[in-house]
Design a protein that fits this description.
By secondary structure, the protein is α/β, with parallel strands linked by helices. The protein has 14 helices and twelve strands. Helices cover about 45% and strands about 20% of the residues. Helix 2 (about 20-30) packs across helix 4 and helix 3 packs across helix 4 (about 50-65).
Length: about 350
């Protein structure tokens, strides 16, 4: 009899331990990503602050550890145990999202949402024709575009905020992203008409270094390649103004602030007809724009179509091979020798 009661109590404990709810995991994940502000979390989830606090307490009681340290009623920080728990909660929530995506794909393959994080240059110059064609093909897919720095973009893809990250820099810092090269692009120099550089037979880095330069903020749009080119020659460029946005850079070139160095695709022959464009493809190494998504993402049919519209060499077969790669080295070997289109 004693053994039976112990056995049944053991079972009861097991069932009790399995009480953890997805909703509780969502609450701790969201609170951790709203700077521990429970009222802001409650607002974003359209629920009550006491409701969230109560569910977090219930989860902590059940687990026997605190996820958040507190001072009075305020959450002050995530505990070491909490950090591990929140990371795993994020993985579980993404898996749940994948289950929903799979179900949606089989119930209605032309309906859903697609979130993309990218830089201004991509959003403004590379993506419009792709998005226009995609919307015509999938009018019931809601598209969300987030703009940010390459670091923010990579983070958004890594933590599942967006489906795809499209950028030139920073993606390789996140090991759990599957990254595929889309195209190469070069830089050009833009100056007002009549500028001394327009009279030179050949543009060199040495001459460029003599003028004030207006270009991208460091960490944006292949800026590192530009700095590398100058430092290899032992030159220090006089960068007087930086911006994340090629249109802003061109505006300050027009004001006579300096010589602009931008991505070639960011120059519009009609809109920028007042500026002179000088080819700089021989001065700076070309950059590669990549598309990245979280390992383990379920790629719906329309997601594959989006990638293929953006980079036609990334067929479904190639995507499947990329997803099967175990690490960055295997990915690089897969695309080694692939001729990328030049923008």
């Amino acid at each position: 009899g004693i053994r039976d009661s112990v056995a049944s109590r053991g079972l009861g404990d097991v069932y009790k331990r399995q009480d953890m709810k997805l909703q509780q995991l969502r609450y701790i994940w969201e609170v951790a990503h709203h700077d521990l502000n429970v009222s802001a979390t409650a607002q974003s989830l359209y629920t009550s602050q006491p409701g969230i606090s109560k569910q977090i307490r219930l989860l902590e009681d059940e687990l026997g550890v605190e996820v958040f340290a507190r001072s009075g009623k305020h959450l002050t920080r995530v505990t070491p145990a909490g950090e591990r728990i929140i990371t795993t909660a994020g993985e579980i929530l993404r898996k749940v999202e994948s289950i929903k995506q799979i179900a949606q794909e089989f119930s209605n393959e032309k309906k859903g949402t697609l979130s993309i994080a990218t830089t201004h240059t991509q959003a403004r110059y590379a993506l419009p024709p792709v998005i226009s064609s995609f919307i015509k093909q999938y009018p019931d897919v809601a598209l969300h575009m987030h703009q940010g720095s390459p670091m923010q973009i990579a983070e958004m893809a890594a933590d599942g905020t967006v489906d795809f990250a499209i950028a030139t820099e920073a993606l390789e810092l996140f090991g759990d992203l599957v990254m595929m090269p889309c195209y190469r692009w070069n830089r050009c120099v833009v100056v007002p008409q009549g500028h001394p550089l327009t009279k030179l037979p050949k543009l060199t880095l040495e001459t460029l270094a003599e003028y004030p330069i207006v270009t991208y903020v460091f960490g944006f749009t292949g800026r590192s390649k530009l700095d590398e080119a100058f430092s290899h020659r032992g030159l220090t460029p006089k960068v007087v103004f930086t911006a994340a946005d090629a249109d802003v850079i061109k505006t300050y070139v027009r004001l006579g602030l300096g010589v602009g160095i931008v991505a070639k695709m960011a120059v519009d022959t009609k809109l920028d007809s007042d500026l002179v464009v000088l080819d700089a493809s021989e001065l700076f190494e070309s950059s590669i724009t990549k598309i990245g998504f979280r390992r383990g993402t379920f790629l719906r049919g329309f997601m594959c179509d989006f990638i293929e519209k953006f980079a036609p060499h990334l067929t479904r077969e190639v995507m499947a091979k990329a997803i099967a790669c175990h690490n960055k080295q295997e990915l690089e070997e897969l695309f080694d020798g692939v001729e990328l289109p030049v923008h």
